[in-house]
Amino acid sequence: MNITVWNEFRHEKLNAAVAAIYPEGIHHVIAKGLQQEGVNVQTATLDEVEHGLTDKVLRETDVLIWWGHKAHEEVEDEIVQKIYQRVLEGMGMIVLHSGHFSKIFKKLMGTSCDLKWRQVGEKERLWVVDPSHPIVAGIGEYIELEKEEMYGEFFDIPEPESLLFLSWFAGGEVFRSGCTYSRGKGKIFYFRPGHETYPTYHNPQIIKVIRNAAQWAAPIVGPQLQFGKTDPLEKL
Amino acid sequence: MNITVWNEFRHEKLNAAVAAIYPEGIHHVIAKGLQQEGVNVQTATLDEVEHGLTDKVLRETDVLIWWGHKAHEEVEDEIVQKIYQRVLEGMGMIVLHSGHFSKIFKKLMGTSCDLKWRQVGEKERLWVVDPSHPIVAGIGEYIELEKEEMYGEFFDIPEPESLLFLSWFAGGEVFRSGCTYSRGKGKIFYFRPGHETYPTYHNPQIIKVIRNAAQWAAPIVGPQLQFGKTDPLEKL
Amino acid sequence: MNITVWNEFRHEKLNAAVAAIYPEGIHHVIAKGLQQEGVNVQTATLDEVEHGLTDKVLRETDVLIWWGHKAHEEVEDEIVQKIYQRVLEGMGMIVLHSGHFSKIFKKLMGTSCDLKWRQVGEKERLWVVDPSHPIVAGIGEYIELEKEEMYGEFFDIPEPESLLFLSWFAGGEVFRSGCTYSRGKGKIFYFRPGHETYPTYHNPQIIKVIRNAAQWAAPIVGPQLQFGKTDPLEKL
Amino acid sequence: MNITVWNEFRHEKLNAAVAAIYPEGIHHVIAKGLQQEGVNVQTATLDEVEHGLTDKVLRETDVLIWWGHKAHEEVEDEIVQKIYQRVLEGMGMIVLHSGHFSKIFKKLMGTSCDLKWRQVGEKERLWVVDPSHPIVAGIGEYIELEKEEMYGEFFDIPEPESLLFLSWFAGGEVFRSGCTYSRGKGKIFYFRPGHETYPTYHNPQIIKVIRNAAQWAAPIVGPQLQFGKTDPLEKL
C-alpha cells in the first residue's frame, strides 16, 4: 500500500510554537507513525511543484492523507479536480482537522463543511460510538486530549455513512469527529483532532486511528465500472 | 408553500414527438399536477432571463423541481451557486430523471452522478422498498410504466439517506430510483422516471410521488445556524 | 390522529419528590402538551387491565408514546408482541428516556440497548445535528436542561437512520439522544431526556420535540404489503 | 480466524436432487470454499448436540455462517440467545438465503424479515451497488445465476447500513440481496442466493463474496465496553 501524507506546511515555517512541536512538519510525524511493513509512505506539500501531487504520484497513491488550514485557496483547482477523480476511481482519502474547509473535502461532500470553533486549548474527549468498526481497533472507550481547538456543531456535512467518534468539549459543545463516506469507488474518513499548536499527532492513539483508517480506506479490486449507453442483457 | 417547477424546455420545441405529449412543456404538466389548496406553483425555464430563477424567485421558493437534459452546460454557474446556497439554507429540491447530470445535482452530491442508459422504450417497474416513508403515501407495492428509458447501476451517487424505490427493467438492469438526501437545512429527493418521449408525467401515481416529495421537502422552521468563532458555554 | 401516552406510573405513587413534579403522572403532563386541534390524546398505564393497551386501543392508536423504568419486566410478553405487530403495520412509536430498556424497544432494535448512567442532576445540552428534520422544527441550536440524569455512550443501539440530537453532559460524557428508525411500515423515535425527578416534561421545548415526533411518526397510507408465494409478473 | 459454517442439513438427507448437488451438505461446500491460509474452518449442524454450537465452539468462533430453511423452529431458544450474545460481543455473522427467517436473524433485525418468494428456477442477476466495499472485491459489475429461487420486495428488514447487491429477477421482481448491519460489536451480512436445489454455492463468485464477507465480519480488538452506573470524568 502506498500512502501519501499531504501537508500545507506553512504554520511550521512561520510560527515558532508550531515548529517546536513539529520541527519537520506535521506530515513528517504522521508519515513516521504510519510506517510499517508492507506500507510505503511518502509526503507532499503545498509549495512543491504541483503541490507534490503530480499525475504519477496520484496514480500510485492508494490513500491520501490531507492536512491544510490557512492556504486552502492556494491549492490549484486543476489539482483538486485530479484528486477528486482519483477518489471516484478508488483512492482512499483521510481528511484531518482543518482540512474540513479544503476545496477537495467540500467538493466531495457537496456542503459548506462549516462549523463552530474556538482556539483556547480546552479538553476534548473523543467517545467511540461504533465499536464494531475496524478504524477503532485497539482504541479504548474514548481518547482524551488535554488541549485542543474546539470544533462544535452544527457541522455542515452530509449524514455520515458511519459515525465512529463523538467529541465532548469542556466549553460545552459536541462534535461528530470521526465520519466515513464513500464516493464512487473511493472511501473517505474525516477525523477531527489536530490543531497545529498541540502535539496531537504525537499521541499514539491518534496515530493508531489514522493507521487503521488508512488500512480501511485502501482501494479494493472492485468492479470495472461502465457508464453510458448499454445494450440489453435480456431479449426485448 | 411555494413550488417552482424548472424545465429546460428545449425538447418540446424541437421534437414533434415530445411536443405531442407535452405541448406546453413538461413543467406545465407537473405544475398542474401539483396544484392544490395551500400550494402556489409557478414555473421557470432555461431560456428566461436568469433561467427564470431570479434572486426574488429563489428566495420565495420553498421547493424547486428540476428537469433538464441536453443543455445542462448552458445553466450559468452563478445561478447554480445561488440554488446551492438556497438548498443549504433549507429550500427543498426534487431532481427528476435526466436532471441526475445537472450541475446542481452533481454539486450537491459530490460525485459524477453517472449511470448506464438505453433508450428503446422498455418496461420499468418501480418497487417500494421503504413503505413507512411519507413520499410513498398512496402508492401500491410498485408503479409500472409500460415504456421508459432505462437507467442502470452502477449509479454514481453517495449512499442515499433513505432509499424508497428500486426499478426493475425488462432489459435486465436495476436502479435506485427514489433517493433522499439532506444538505445543510435542505432536503433533496431524486426520482428517476420521466424521459421526454413518454407520457410519464401524465401518470397519476408519478405525480402523486412528486406531490408527496414536495410536501416532504418543504423547509421547516429549523435552528438559526451559527458558524465561526464562538465563546464557551461553560466556564473554562 | 390518535396518540396514546403510556406510562409505567409507579414512581409518581411511591416517591413524593416525583409526585410533587408530576402529581397526576408523567403521562398526564405529556398528554396535555400534545393536545391540539385534530389530535386526540389518551393515556394508558401499567396497572390498568392489559396495561391499558387492549386490542381496540392499539388498533386505533396512530402513535404510541412510552415511558417506563423500574417495572419493564412486568409488561406482559403478549402485550409486547401486539405492540410490535402494530409497529410493523405502521403505528408510530416514541420511546422516552428509560424506555430504552423496555421489552418493546429492545425487541424492535435487536440489541441490548444498554448504556452508562449517573443520577446526580447535572447539566445536559442537546445539540441539533440534523437541522433539516421535521422533528427539530421550532427548536434552536440546542436545548439546555439544568439538571438531568446522565446517559453515556456506548449506547448499544443499531446505527440510527437519522441522528437528530447529541447530548453534552457536564460530567464528561456524550450521548446520541434523538434517533429515528423504521421497522416495517412503522416509524420509531427515541428521545433521551426525562428522568422522573426533574421537571423535564414541563419544558416547552421538550414537549415541542415530542409533538413534532408524533406528527412525523404518524402512519401513512402506504402500500398493502404482500408476503409469501407469488406469481411472476413477467412471462417466464 | 475461526469460521464456523452452520447448516440445518436436512434437505440433503431427504431430497435426492439436493443430495446430488451437495452430497456432503451445503456446509461442506461452503467450508471448502473458505479454506485458505490463516483461516480455520469447521462446521456444525442442527442435529448435533446443542446444534454443534457448544459454549466452547461459540466462544472460539470469529465468524458464524448460517444456512437454515425448514427447521427454524427446531433451533433451541437457549442456543439462539447464546449466538445473539456472542454477536453483540463481536462475533461476525453471515446469514444466507432462507436464513432470513431464522430465529437469530429476526432477533437481530427487530423485524419480521418476511418477503415474497417463487421457486421455479428463474434467472437472477445480482448488481453491485457499492463498488467501494471490501465484500465486493474481485467481483464484476454483476453476478448472474441461471436458475435460482426468487425473493422479492418488500423485504421486511431494517434499512441496511450498507447495501451492496440488488437482484434482478426474470419474473419481474427486485431484491436487496447484500445488506450489512452492526449490532453491538458484531458485524452482520445477509446474502440472498443459495436455494438448495441449485448449485449456487459451487459458483466461485458466490464463494468469493462469502469469503470477503467473513474477512469483513471478523471481530476487531475494539473497546472493552462498560455499561451501568458510572462516575463522572469531570468535577461536578
From TrEMBL, chains A, B, C, D:
Gene3D superfamilies linked to this entry: 3.40.50.880
Domain ThuA-like span(s) in chain numbering: 3-217
InterPro entries recorded: Class_I_gatase-like, ThuA-like, Trehalose_catabolism_ThuA_prok
Domain of life: Bacteria
Protein name: Trehalose utilization protein
UniProt source species: Paenibacillus qinlingensis
